[in-house]
Amino acid sequence: MSTICWTEAGTSCTAGWHSENAAPPPLRVVVADDSTKADTAYRLACEGTALLWRGDFHNARQLMQAMARRIDRKAPRGGGSPAESFHLHRRARRHRARVLGRLLVRLDVGHGLDLRRAPDVREACAEAYGPPSGPTAVSLTELLGVIGAHEWRRRGVEVPALGARVHPHYGVFSPVRGEYVDLVAQAPLPGGAVAFDLGTGTGVLAAVLAKRGMARVVATDISARALACARENVRRLGFADRIDVADPGLFPAGRANLVVCNPPWLPGRPNSTVEQGVYDADGVMLRSFLTGLAVHLEPGGEGWLVLSDLAEHLGLRSRADLLALIEAAGLEVVGRLDTAPRHPRARDAADPLHAARARETTSLWRLAVR
What we know:
By secondary structure, this protein is α/β, with parallel strands linked by helices. It is 35% helix and 23% strand. α1 (38-46) packs across α2 (57-73) and α4 (122-129) crosses α5 (140-155). It starts with a strand and ends with a strand.
């Protein structure tokens, strides 16, 4: 584990460094507390200096919000084309994440947080990080994400298509956008009893397929966290006898009558662990699904590609590009179901990408071997 070093009360101190986003440990760390002004914290963080918080926990959150306001005031406003606007927005989000990520807290040997008015974060940190390995510094923004994920995991997310809740783990994309789940619940099933769910995440689509009557569903993911999450949800929902959560990978061995894939919808580099469910650099998962589908389908089987067209409205991928990928893979489109997004951002006129989001359609493409 990497370490960070700082001086406190005339004493040299060290702690382990942990970053889910693989950010390198800061080279310079100073102590900050309730007397630290937002302008000072913002300037130091922009210069690359990390601030290890030693004051009141709620004051740390207020300081972070004040720093965020200063960042947002200086953020660029739009671009010429939708693609330029998107790239400006992503660059601004990366800068925001870097600066705010320099406000740190120290977890003790048991994942405890020794700050005034601090919540008990031990269970949340154990879920996200595993067993503690000594005092560790993490960014406050990451810790708040860990706390939020713990609450999502505890309460779960209602899935009307299942009539039940699924419980996402930290770093696993939550099925809060229910329209894609509804598409899988409504599309006409091909004949046969075996289905693959590629990139299963929480296992929600595998569960929907099992509830619809598929006798055997094999769920895959490249993320160990997602696989653990899916196994837990499969057990909770009572489908352990019909859903097999496989080892890490994309396609499992063998063939299926139905192969379902809901890849990240936008080509781009994710800024955080959870963004891996939204952004896929160079569209690797989309291409891998399409190129590998034909050899994993039983005769007469179908592949279901669940995909938003937001990338098209942002100028990141054209409809012609998508159709060319489908054709090059030896596939044809035998049907498509469309739905409009229902999430709040689609109606948020203040969102920098509102013009594209307002036109977004989510589709389930039914694909077969030509």
